[in-house]
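Thread title: Can someone regenerate the structure for this chain?

I was given the following input by a collaborator and told the matching structure tokens would be attached. They weren't. Posting the sequence so someone can regenerate them.
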Amino acid sequence: MLKVSHIDKSYGSIMAVNGLSFEVKEGEVFGLLGVNGAGKTTTFRMIVGLLEPDSGEITLDGKKIDYDITDNIGFLTEERSLFVKMSVLEQILFYGNLKGLSNKEIEKRLDYWLDRLKISEYKHEKIKNLSKGNQQKIQFISAVINEPKLLVLDEPFTGLDPFNVDILMTALKEMAKKGTIVIFSSHRMEHVEMFCDRLLILVKGEKVLEGSLKEIKDNYLKKSIRIKGEVDVKGIKEIKGVEKVIKTSDDIIVKVSNMEVVSKVFNVIKNGKNIIKFEVEDPSLNEIFVSKVGDYFEE
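Best answer:
Regenerated them for you:
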């Protein structure tokens, strides 16, 4: 288990991370979310041992993370960290040797991942000649070549098209099933919804929301009603608790402040013509994120 306990980190007068605590179990995929400057990257760097917290503690299976532990950790940074004049093989041999692996074992694992990510033909190609998406795949391989117990991914899907995002997600889910702890950040909320078991939102270095996706959506009062048919839009807008009515080419979407408003909307539209749809929908994670972060900045 990864355990982060009451960690603080400041840069001069700027508090980057403030009293942050969370736990991630084996086989769990955990999303650490926030706007730019929220403290995600600083947190990741403390987790992998590149930065020391000013206070608090970070442990993996009860042990403080230091050089005795780091061979069991993989880290994919948001910035490119590849030697572009090296070939793919040379690059991965370099990283694998740093983790104490033999050349034979590294090449065996590399061949597996190149095939898995559909880029076997680039094994001897120089990094600088690869597309940004394929460079991202090589960076990912460098992070998992040691078959880490803890895998930290800072914006892992950057530069990847939907097809390759799916390939990478599938591979990561399989690693998690085998017990790898996966913690990642992404600005693409749809990726988070598809991928993570639990998530945490950071604002200005502080935790403002944590839980499973289901818990977070269930606890978020605002809902959407999707209606198809001829209805009294003006009457709907006049209902207290209706925040917005959006007309699309097919449906009418009614944003309401809580579930109590749903029955009031139904009472207005039930006598309309050709009503073939009335569905209550949970908000998207993107809506919750924008609302939660926006509320914090407005305080």
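The chain has two domains: 2-217, 221-281.
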